[in-house]
Design a protein that fits this description.
Blueprint (H helix, E strand, L loop, with lengths): L4 E5 L6 H14 L7 E5 L5 H7 L6 E4 L16 H6 L4 E4 L2 H6 L4 H13 L3 E6 L3 H5 L3 H12 L11 E5 L13 H18 L2 H6 L2 E4 L7 H5 L6 E4 L6 H8 L3
Parallel strand pairs: 1-2, 1-8, 2-3, 3-4, 4-5, 5-6, 6-7, 7-8
The structure holds phosphoenolpyruvate.
The site of phosphoenolpyruvate has 13 residues, from strand 8.
């Protein structure tokens, strides 16, 4: 059975003390019987302390990005080796904010995927269409191309280290959520696309998260859909009570 995951993308929120406080709330309040694998993605500067704070728990840590080069003159950037050196095992790549604000193309993201896999990091690969694509009926094409251009160059064995996160851009941070039916329709399409490009076992085993304004009051319905294996949560991951309600909605 494929893994259920709820991941919190903290973006550029929470200083050192606030990171510790939220982690402590999660550590003490997430019920032991929780089904989902919980992952949190604090900012780079708080990754090492997060790993330390969570070392005796089941909560995993993800970086929000990495640079594709091994090292070098890239002022302000962080390498995969630096991330793994503090004990982080996961990385979010291809987030729509990285694509839109920091001009990350599918080719750049593909190169980041290679670097992450080379360092044995699990990649949470984000992709999703913009509002104009959905309105023009082009959303399936966009999603298929993002997968093909950013990810499908990997080898079959690499899929054990990949989690997909479908995040329609029009639903991120907007309060607008894809309906559970829209999410299911796209997740089914994504699984089918993986099946055609690779094989049935890979398609059935890959965890596909939904992201885009998942909140405590809509999580259960979205997660109830057969091809939705959990969520990537932005805003609602910054509050322990909301995030735990979402985590326990699986
Ligand atoms: C995200 O940024 O990945 C996200 C899903 O954000 P939000 O939940 O705030 O829409």
């Amino acid at each position: 059975m494929r893994k259920k995951i709820v991941a919190g993308n903290w973006k550029m929120h929470k200083n050192a003390a606030q990171t510790k406080e939220l982690l402590n709330e999660l550590l003490t309040q997430i019920p032991a019987e929780t089904v989902a694998q919980v992952i949190v993605a604090p900012t780079f500067i708080n990754l090492a302390s997060a790993v330390d704070n969570l070392k005796h728990s089941n909560i995993a840590v993800a970086a929000q990005n990495l640079h594709q080069a091994e090292s070098g003159a890239f002022t302000g950037e962080i390498s995969a080796e630096m991330i793994t050196s503090v004990g982080v095992k996961n990385v979010i790549l291809g987030h729509s904010e990285r694509r839109a604000i920091f001009n990350e193309t599918d080719a750049i993201i593909a190169s980041k995927v290679n670097t992450a896999l080379k360092h044995d990091l699990t990649v949470i690969f984000c992709f999703g269409e913009e509002l104009k694509d959905r309105q023009s009926g082009n959303h399936f094409n966009i999603v298929e191309n993002q997968l093909k251009d950013g990810l499908f160059h990997i080898e079959a064995k690499d899929w054990a280290k990949v989690v997909l996160a479908y995040e329609p851009v029009w639903a991120i941070g907007t309060g607008e959520t894809a309906s559970p039916e829209q999410a299911q329709e796209m997740h089914q399409f994504i699984r089918e696309t993986v099946r055609k490009a690779f094989d049935s076992d890979i398609a059935e085993d890959v965890t596909i998260l939904y992201g885009g304004s998942v909140k405590p009051d809509n999580a259960k319905e979205i997660f109830s859909k057969p091809d939705v294996d959990g969520g990537l949560i932005g805003g609602a991951a910054l509050n322990a009570k909301d995030f735990i309600t979402i985590v326990t909605s699986i």
